[in-house]
Amino acid sequence: MTKNSYRTSNFYLAAFLHSKEIELIDIDRTGGSRRVAFVFAESSERERNVQAFNFSPEDGDVAKIDARKLISSIKALKEKLYQDWTRRKMKQEKDDQN
């Protein structure tokens, strides 16, 4: 993690941050692993939202979010993961042919 970014492999935290409009910088799939890290821009807002996600009581208002917005973020992240996977697979097939 660099000083200007925040990484998480927690898909639901990533979806929460995305739905809170924290800038997604990259999806990092290191070492060809199936595990990915979502890389977000560092900010005080990002920090507050991570704290809210992890430590707010379930019935508290701090981490509440519109369900449609969260579902939209989940779909967007899945699409980005699929695009990344497809791009890597095509590159690997091209490299194998050469």
The helix/strand class is alpha+beta
CA-to-CA gap between the ends?
34 Å
Number of separate strands: 3
Secondary-structure element pattern, one letter each: EHEEHH
How large is the share of residues in beta strands?
5-15%
Features:
single chain; elongated; 3 strands; three-stranded antiparallel sheet; 98 residues; alpha+beta
Summary, kept brief:
With 98 residues, the protein is of the alpha+beta class.
Structure, described:
The chain is α+β, with helices and mostly antiparallel strands and 98 residues long. Helix content is 53%, strand content 14%. The protein has three helices and three strands, in the order E-H-E-E-H-H. A three-stranded antiparallel β-sheet has the order 1-3-2, with helices on one face. Strand 2 (24-28) and strand 3 (37-41) form a beta hairpin. It starts with a strand and ends with a helix.
